[in-house]
Amino acid sequence: MIPAKKIKVRTRLSTLAFTGGGIMAKDALKRADTAIDGMRGPSLAAIDEMMAQMDARFGPAAAGREAEPVDDLYILASGIISLSACVRDSGLDQGAKALCDLVDLSEQMEVWDWEAVDVHLSTLRMLRAAGEAMTPHERGAVIDGLIKVTRKRIGDPKTLAQST
User: Fold this and answer.
1) pTM score, two decimals?
2) Most distant CA pair in the chain: distance in Å?
3) What mean pLDDT do residues 46-61 have?
4) What angle do CA 147, 153, 134 make, to 5 degrees?
5) What gap in Å lies between CA 148 and CA 2, rounded to an integer?
6) 36-69 in b/e burial notation, b at 16+ Cβ within 10 A?
7) Taking a C-beta distance cutoff of 8 angstroms, is the pair 58, 121 a contact?
8) d(CA 19, CA 141)
9) Minimal CB count within 10 Å: which of 46, 70, 86, 89?
10) How many Å apart are CA 133 and CA 106, to the nearest integer?
């Protein structure tokens, strides 16, 4: 039997990890925060535009909202989720996710409830206006309320997963 021969390979990454220089993690995090803060204004403007589109096309005053493709509502809400990284601690990401869940579940259950959509849109507007001023507990209660609206008006996603 031939004994195993070990070969030590030095990768570029391991070389860089053990040489001086580079940036401290805390400094990298500060730079990232600064970069995110710089994108806050444009992100808020884009979120406001998406919310205006949702209101215009899917809101309670939207004429012909029943004819609008609900996939577009999902796309707009998921866009808000993406941009919410620049609006920390507002609950917008969770509120938009709750709206995506409502649309998903509504399509799966083949049930559509405009009043539930209206509640979600209204709550998103409220989170945009006051979410950052709320405590984490208050924001959590708002998001829990959206989940309850979906369960009451459309159904429980847990039971849907069990039945399929």
Assistant:
1) 0.77
2) 82
3) 96
4) 30
5) 67
6) eeeeeeebbebbeebbebbbebbbeebeebeeee
7) yes
8) 49
9) 89
10) 31
